[in-house]
Design brief:
Length: 349
């Protein structure tokens, strides 16, 4: 936290306060209610970044900044309430990364976990520990902590994806570390198809043909969740949200220890029930147009837009279209809140 707390009690004799400060001591009673506020407080605010505004600036970054210099050509989505912290919420980092045909972003590994949701373009790939992961619009790819990864591009148009990382959380733990970069190497495999072992609900392979890395699935091509959402939407009772969680298919756990991912289908005319939780979430619009209430803000959105819900802000989504569905992707810090015993949620009338 960057907030400075009042550590001096002005009612005490100055000499006493100086004696405390000289010994690196502070009175708790001046700061107790700031440390433990009666109302939940967030510095992060609801905010939306429009694809329409960002796309030209990403293309310009690709002209202005060579990949060799940038290493990762990313525009960071900085929460207006967390200026200078390179954070979209207190725990999460989000950025839009652009790579041009034939470019290669060098390889490194680091303690923060990463995920990518492809926004636009085809033909790029991420290599995770030598395994090539193709990137097509709507695909989710995870890069677990300490896995070597680089990015390449064999297609013919710029490719943009949304990066989600737990950098602010890992930094708060003073556990952020990355290896030096080394040149990207050609992938050691054909494109990853680990998801092919998990094509039927309730069935997992007796023996995987892939090495056991603890992450049996690293890539979720968009066609599968979209198809599953469409089928659920056809059968779900009105008023019941149509949403899927991405999970480790062997354990049912979140895909990464620190970040959860979900996709949601909003039926034409649907308004989702209002709720809030102690987790924060970053939403990305894959398909459709609508608006979301986040706390006191109402944010209109269209494909490619990204918006953020800070903790304990009431969230409700609306798809006003008469006949078209809308699809939202989100990543969040829910697994952290749950594992630390800090998870709470509330439905609102
Ligand atoms: O692609 O490896 O947006 O290391 C921030 C840090 C992307 C990456 C980011 C990273 C990467």
């Amino acid at each position: 936290m960057t907030t400075t707390l009042s550590t001096r009690d002005e009612t005490l004799p100055t000499t006493y306060s100086q004696a405390l400060e000289a010994l690196s001591l502070g009175p708790l009673w001046t700061a107790l209610h700031q440390l433990l506020p009666n109302e939940r407080q967030t510095q992060a605010v609801p905010h939306r970044w429009r694809w329409h505004d960002l796309r030209p600036l990403l293309l310009e970054a690709a002209r202005l900044v060579p990949i060799e210099q940038a290493e990762r050509r990313v525009l960071v989505l900085e929460n207006p309430g967390l200026k200078g912290r390179y954070a979209i919420t207190a725990t999460l980092f989000a950025g839009l990364q652009i790579i041009l045909p034939r470019e290669a972003a060098p390889s490194h590994h680091h303690t923060p976990a990463a995920l990518r949701l492809v926004v636009e373009g085809r033909g790029a790939y991420t290599t995770v520990d030598g395994v090539k992961c193709a990137m097509e619009p709507g695909d989710l790819i995870i890069t677990p902590p300490m896995r070597w990864h680089d990015h390449g591009h064999e297609g013919s148009e710029p490719v943009v994806w949304l990066d989600g990382l737990d950098i602010p959380l890992v930094r708060a733990l003073e556990a952020s570390w990355a290896s030096r970069m080394r040149p990207a190497r050609p992938p050691a495999t054909e494109t990853d198809s680990s998801q092919d072992e998990f094509t039927a609900a309730g069935l997992v392979p007796r023996r995987s043909r892939y090495a056991d890395t603890g992450y049996p699935q690293v890539r979720w091509p968009w066609a599968a969740p979209r198809g599953a959402l469409a089928a659920m939407a056809a059968a779900a009772p009105a008023g019941q949200p149509v949403a899927l969680r991405y999970v480790n298919p062997k354990t049912g756990a979140p895909p990464l220890a620190t970040m959860g991912c979900e996709c949601q289908w909003l039926r034409p005319g649907e308004v989702t029930p209002a709720s809030r939780s102690t987790a924060s979430a970053v939403y990305h619009v894959i398909e459709g147009r609508g608006e979301s209430r986040i706390g006191d803000a109402v944010l209109a959105w269209e494909p490619g837009d990204t918006f953020v819900a800070p903790p304990w802000h009431v969230v409700a989504h609306t798809n006003p279209a008469p006949s078209a569905p809308a699809c939202l992707f989100q990543f969040n810090d829910e697994p952290v809140l749950r594992s630390l015993g800090l998870w709470q949620e509330e439905s609102l009338p």
